[in-house]
Amino acid sequence: MAELTKKERVAIPAQQMPERPGNERNKDFKEVNLGLSQEQAVLEASRCLQCKNPPCVSDCPVSVNIPEFIRLISERKFIEAALLIRRDNSLPAITGRVCPQEKQCQSRCLRGKIDSSVAIGWLERFAADYLAAAQAAGEVSAETMAAKSDAIKVAVVGSGPAGLACAGELARMGYAVTVFEAFHKAGGVLVYGIPEFRLPNDIVEREVQQLKSNGVVFETNVIVGRTVKIHELMEEEHFKAVFIANGAGLPSFMGITGENLKGVYSANEYLTRSNLMGAFDRNSDTPITAGKKVCVVGGGNTAMDAVRTSIRLGSEQSHLVYRRDLAQMPARIEEVHHAEQEGVIFDLLTSPIEILADENGWVSGIKCVKMQLKEADASGRQGVTQIPNSEFIIECDQVIMAIGIKANPLLTAATPELNLNAKGYIQTDATGMTSIPGVFAGGDIVRGAATVILAMGDGKKTAESMNNWLSANA
Amino acid sequence: MYKIVDRATVGLNLELYEVEAPRIAKSRQCGQFAIVRPFDHSERIPLTIAAVDKDKGTITFIAQIVGKTTREMSTLNVGDYMCDVAGPLGHPSEIIKYPQVESGKDPVVVVVGGGLGTAVVYPQAVALKESGNTIVSIVGARSKELLLMTDKLGEVSREVICTTNDGSAGRQGFVTEALKDLIEELKGKGSVVAVYTAGPVIMMKAVCDVTRPYGIKTIVSLNPIMVDGTGMCGGCRVTINGETKFACVDGPEFDGHSVDFDELMARLSTYRDKEQEKLKSYEHKHECRMFKQLDENGNK
Q1: Cβ burial, residue B40 (10 Å; 0-12/13-18/19+)
Q2: In this model, does residue A34 exceed pLDDT 90?
Q3: Minimal CB count within 10 Å: which of A28, A152, B120, B203?
Q4: Which CATH architecture group holds A153-249+407-473?
């Protein structure tokens, strides 16, 4: 394609992501977004204005060279585009699907000032999937590396986004990396938390296999802190450095009456049963309660995942109960839209105060109050207050609490030398090192519940720090 | 994969497995459990580690056949592999040397095991004995075939009292009656200073009701429904002194007098129908296969 003029670029309309219709997809767990076609990807990429000082890059936690990979797509150099992304982002097929692009790279895209931002996430996903398909078809040889026999041993605790990103970087630097995972399957929140319809487990598995062919060893069923302690890894198993990325992973409850009734789940339990254990499939050995009328409490991505899962498990009505308004919801905009299309009922400015039971101890409803927004405080966040005498009941037979997570004390309690902050998260210095020399940490166990890409950014940056530290100390 | 090195049926529907799991064998302390997934399609089930052999790098657990997973697991034999074994999980038991309460007289620590719970109190009895305590064991079951580990408990106990509901072995009746009599009997003779108990929730509740008026410290080992066993899912939440705790990371052992047993019993029934259905359909398929095989053999 000949070089386009700016005028020609601006004339190209934004492409739409092909997606399965709401009332078809809400009955199964197959992926909602189908991915851009090649023609769409080239057109969408051609919308990019190729800014000299691209604001999108500075808003990316791993600084992907966005204009360059988009230019390569516009020139139909799809594989080159994917390999370029991979230099900065080891998991593009994942981030292309789950990053909150509208709050990061796409938020300051200059094209957005003209009509709408370039769909950077969709293009990232396109390139990553194209490369994977080409590799699977044998058209491109997969990257393989093996750690040298005398390579320095480094341990990564947790195989979620932070752990995978860190392991990938460290392997590339030539370290012998072992990733310890508490579950029976690698991927962390990517496999237990995010549902198939948003991020198929096969895609995570593909990335894990890629790391394995790059020499990374995965040891599952190891709960660091219980199965083996950090100091044992270092002293007895001769790991010269450790990266702790075991996530936050302790679900919060509201502390209201009735939360331990039958039919009340944390979103973590509900999603783990469905995603990791496959309970969405009737033939699975792991049971799950499929409510007829389901209330999910919360407004983040996890709440969206849970409420959309409940629809797919066959609920007649699925409510999302959130104490603030639509504009304050922390979930990705795309997930909110998808949830609306699939028939989720939004009960906004609504807060539960009690969960009610039937005569058999099962949930029968939640008593709620209506809320109103207050003036924004100095930080710009709007609080809410209860509207007096606004109590009402939503009848339901299942309640899923998706109101956030806290620091899981399992590893930190077993490692008293680690300095923690008041909330129990691990404290690190600017390089990501904890109070134990050679032990680094990142992701949710440091920053509290955040996003996949921020965790990956931690993993990537900390791998650099670990390399520097190991060069000086090992 | 975790190789099975020993295997036995130790009672009616009570199956013992000794499995190679060197990391767990090395770090496990008394009272901790493992999460087992016998096959790749199985659910994750928590099982108390009854014993370990650090030299061999093995752990032993006993599972009662109650649902599809435990039934299917029982088809595994020595030399077969378990798909996943993760642990050790939970806090270790509180094992201390209990001081005298009556001068010059040895105080008694009682372990009370009901059914499969005996596999939980057995390692406690061993550890308590090693710490210098005098142990009396009370083992209860519905009938003789369900009494577990009485000989092994005998090795560390001053006395083992068996009770069966049907009177087919030992004293007819419940462990609670035996416990109450023992507490009364040992008054002025050292006294019962602590009770460790594990078994059906209704039994643990009854044991706590017996000890409460005497103010005897009673430690229960709880077995709620759980998925990951690391605090991640919160499915195992129990109410202790009015506060929600996660049995997997805060327990599994708690002060029995603080536990809301009724809530625990209710929560344990969450999947009962589904589990029965699964078991039935598994056994139906299994029988069909057996008949088919018989048929084929017959035609040969």
Answers
A1: exposed
A2: yes
A3: A28
A4: 3-Layer(bba) Sandwich (3.50)
